[in-house]
Protein: DUF2794 domain-containing protein
Amino acid sequence: MNAAPPFAADPERVVFDRAELGAILTVYGRFVAAGEWRDYAMSFLRDAAIFSVFRRATEHPLYRIEKRPKLRSAQGAYAVIAMDGRILKRGHDLSQVLKVLDKKLIRAVD
Structure:
């Protein structure tokens, strides 16, 4: 019997590495602290790794942070996509792509 370990890496799936996940969770933590986001989900597919953020777990995702390695040589592997499907930012550097979300966190204070 030659069974794979339960958490063996699947070379057919795209995943976020530790540094990428750390950058995403840093942004996520800031929005959670501000009370804007409450939940997240991750999907690891054959062509993309997707980190979705939610205001409430029962809603559609507010934003999707995607990694699509096949687009690396074209527009860039990383993208932030809004709930309506608009690509807010795409690029080769995840930290630069995530900066588009910083604008969403700035609010006027009374």
